[in-house]
Amino acid sequence: MKTLNVGVIGYGFMGRAHSNAYRTVGNFFDIAHQPVLKAACGRNEENVKAFAEKWGYESVETDWRKLLERDDIDAIDICTQNNFHCEIAIAAAKAGKMILCEKPLAMNVAEGEQMVAAVEEAGVPNIVWYNYRRVPAVTMAKQLIDEGRLGKIYHYRAQFLQDWTIAEDLPQGGAGLWRLDVNEAGSGVTGDLLAHCIDTAIWLNGSIDKVSAMTETFVKERMHNISGQVEKVGIDDACAFLARFANGSLAVFESTRYARGHKALYTFEINGEHASIAWDLHDLHRLSYFDHKDDSNLRGWRSIHVTDGEHPYMDKWWVPGLQIGYEHSFVHQVADFLQGLEEGKPVSPTFREALETQKICEAVLESGKSGAWVNVEC
Ligand SMILES: NC(=O)c1ccc[n+]([C@@H]2O[C@H](COP(=O)([O-])OP(=O)(O)OC[C@H]3O[C@@H](n4cnc5c(N)ncnc54)[C@H](O)[C@@H]3O)[C@@H](O)[C@H]2O)c1
Questions:
Q1: Which atom of ligand 1 is nearest to the CA of 14?
Q2: Are both 158 and 20 inside the same structural domain?
Q3: Which one of 81, 138, 192, 331 would you pick to mutate in the ligand 1 pocket, going by the greatest count of ligand atoms within 8 A of its CB?
Q4: In sequence order, which residues have a C-beta less than 8 Å from that of residue 140 and are 6 or more positions away?
Q5: What percent of the chain has pLDDT over 70?
Q6: Contact predicate 153/268, CB 8 Å
Q7: Quick check: CB of 154 below 6 Å from ligand 1?
Q8: Is 197 in the pocket of ligand 1 (CB under 6 A)?
Q9: Which domain does 247 fall in, by range?
Q10: Same domain, 264 and 337
C-alpha cells in the first residue's frame, strides 16, 4: 500500500464530508494509494482536538502554516471559507504539497490565476471539489452525451434553489454565516451555488462564450457578527442568467436563497436533437431520459435507477437496486484522485479547469451590475 498523508484545514461541513470520504474510500475502492488522516487543522484548539478524535486524525495543528511545514504531510485539503483558499493554496504549492481545494476555487479570477500559476509552477497534483460531477447519475449523463445519444444540443437549463436567508434579522459573517459576508465569500449564490451548476454544465456541454445576468440583494443591510455593526450586504442573494455555449446551445441558469420551500434543489435538463436528460439532486440516484428513437407508441420519459453494476462507480458499492447518496460523490472524488496518482495523470477538475468556472462567475457578476452581455475570456 502507498500512503497519502492528508492534512485537512477546516472542520466544518466540508471538513466532515471529506474526512468521511478519506475514511471510506479504501473499504470500497481497490487502489494502491490510500489516504491516512495525518492532521486536522483549525483555529480553535479544543474544537479541532474534538474533531480529530471523532474522525481519527493522528494529530492537530492550530496554524495552517505549521501544517505546511511538516514533512509528514503529502496533501493539503482546503476546507475553509473562500477567502483563505488562495493564500493557503499558494503557500501549499510552494511547500510542494498536493492540493485538494474546496470550490469555488477563489474569491475572484485574479486570485484564481495566481493559484493556477502556483500549482503549475510547483508541478503538484491539484483538484477542486466540484463533487456533483461524481454523482453516478450525473457521470452517466456525461457518458450519454459523449456517446452522441443526444445529438446536437439545443438547450441547457439549471437551477439551484434554497430558502435559508429570507429572514431579515439573520446576521452576516463568522461561523455558519460567512456565506452572507462578501469579504469572506467573494459573492453570494453565484460563487456558492451557480458555480456548481456552471462546473457541471461546461463539463457536460463545453465552454460558455457569453452571459447576460440579473442579480439582486433582497436584504440590503444585516448585523455583522464580528463587527457588531449593521453593515451593507455585498453578496448577490439571487442570480439568473442567460448563456450561449460555444456549441451553439442556449442556456438558462437560476439560483436563489429566497425560494421558500426549497433547501438544496439543484436540477438540470438538457435537450438535444435525439434525446433529453434531466437530473434532480433530491432524487440524485435517478436519471430521467427521453429518447425520440424509441418506438413512437412507447415513447416517454424513462426514470433510470442508476444502481446497476454497469453504471458509473456502482460496481464498487452494494447490489443492483440499492442506492447511494450525497456523501458518496466525495468518496468518488477521492478515489479518482488516488487513481490519478497511480497513473501519474491529472484528475478533473484541476485548478486550471476550475478557473474557467471562476471566469464565468465573474462575467455573470459583471453582467449583473452592468446589465450588458459579457464575453467570457477563457
Ligand atoms: N463541494 C460542495 O458541495 C461544498 C458544500 C459546502 C461548502 N463548500 C465549500 O467548502 C468550503 C467550506 O465550507 P463549509 O460549509 O465547510 O464551511 P464551514 O463554515 O462549515 O467550515 C469552515 C471551516 O474552516 C475553518 N477555518 C476558517 N478559517 C480558517 C483558518 N484560517 N485556519 C483554519 N481553519 C479555518 C472554520 O473554523 C471551519 O471549521 C467553502 O469554500 C465552501 O464554498 C463546498
A1: 16
A2: no
A3: 81
A4: 287, 304, 306, 311, 312
A5: 100
A6: no
A7: no
A8: no
A9: 132-375
A10: yes
In angstroms, the CA 135 to CA 154 distance is 24
Is residue 141 domain-shared with residue 48, that is, in the same domain?
A: no
CA-CA distance, 282 to 265, in Å (whole number)?
6
For residue 290, how far is the Cα from the chain centroid? Answer: 27
Residues 220 and 268 grouped into a single domain:
yes
pLDDT reported for residue 60: 98
Q: Are 67 and 156 members of one domain?
A: no
User: pLDDT, tens digit, for every residue of 317-376?
Assistant: 999 999 999 999 999 999 999 999 999 999 999 999 999 999 999 999 999 999 999 999
pLDDT at 323: 97
Q: Is 15 in the pocket of ligand 1 (CB under 6 A)?
A: yes
Question: Nearest C-alpha to atom 28 of ligand 1 is from which residue?
Answer: 80
pTM beyond 0.90 = yes
Residue among 48, 78, 83, 102 to mutate when testing ligand 1 (max atoms within 8 A of CB): 102
| Local confidence band at 378 (pLDDT 50, 70, 90 cut-offs) | confident
**Ligand 1 atom nearest residue 15's Cα:** 16
Q: E strands along 32-123, which residues?
A: 33-41, 59-61, 75-78, 98-101
Strand, coil or helix: 327: helix
In short, whether 14's Cβ falls inside 6 Å of ligand 1 is yes
Q: 274: number of CA atoms within 13 Å, CB side?
A: 11
Domain C-terminal end among 84, 104, 130: 130
